Amino acid sequence: DAKTTQPTSMDCAEGRAANLPCNHSTISGNEYVYWYRQIHSQGPQYIIHGLKNNETNEMASLIITEDRKSSTLILPHATLRDTAVYYCIVRPRSGSGNTGKLIFGQGTTLQVKP
Amino acid sequence: EPEVTQTPSHQVTQMGQEVILRCVPISNHLYFYWYRQILGQKVEFLVSFYNNEISEKSEIFDDQFSVERPDGSNFTLKIRSTKLEDSAMYFCASIRGLGTGELFFGEGSRLTVL
Question: Is A103 within 8 Å of chain B by CB?
Fold first, then answer.
């Protein structure tokens, strides 16, 4: 089962920042936080990941709290094309028994409105 | 940008028929996965594959399912005798290594069982 909790849905105005929260209170020290999204029924798309430091790439920023129990994905200027289901996933680093799989929860449906 | 390709994009079959879904992972990737997504539901892990053998499988992946990497490029999912409840999107994914890299997903194959 997924080890994260996300709101079921959120709305965001086009051009504004979208802030998507995720709780992962049981995260362990060797687990990363990953964010993926799924536009309509397309294949999931990687967005960003992090361990404990904040991360930024061309798509988004990831803010992880100091205790690592929660994080926020930030889309700085949401567009209509960012309408999708966003998944927050915790995944262990490589190690014994780790097969690299991702376990998806229900995610947050983000609706960007004009 | 390298991508995971899947064929067919859509297959319609009669209940009880065998189906083979094909995937071409990214060429230097070593770990391969199949997921499925029933309409309106979450993305579910089926199986992971490494070094020509299954490394992990879920409860969904019963004796009706099998995977194979018949040559250096293709990765297939076979359903021996399809049931109505096998109707879903099936996604293939691959990753180069088990570090912190991203899982790349294909666009999916939609299977409709009548």
Answer: yes
Mark B100-109 as b/e (b = at least 16 C-beta within 10 Å): eebbbbbbbb
Judging contacts by C-beta atoms under 8 Å, the chain A residues touching residue B91 are: 43-44
Structure tokens at A35: 């964010």
pLDDT in tens, B10-53: 999 999 999 999 999 999 899 999 999 999 999 999 999 999 99
Nearest to A98 by CA among B4, B46, B99, B91: B99
Tens digits of per-residue pLDDT, A36-47?
Answer: 999 998 999 999
- DSSP string over B27-54: TT--EEEEEEE-TTS--EEEEEEETTEE
Taking an 8 Å cut-off on Cβ atoms, the answer to whether A94 and B98 are in contact is yes
Give the pLDDT confidence score for residue A96 in this predicted structure: 60
Residues in CB range of A31: below 8 A, 6 or more apart: A24, A90, A91, A92, A93
Q: Which tokens sit at B44?
A: 């579910």
Strand order in the sheet with A18-23: A18-23, A70-75, A61-64, A55-56
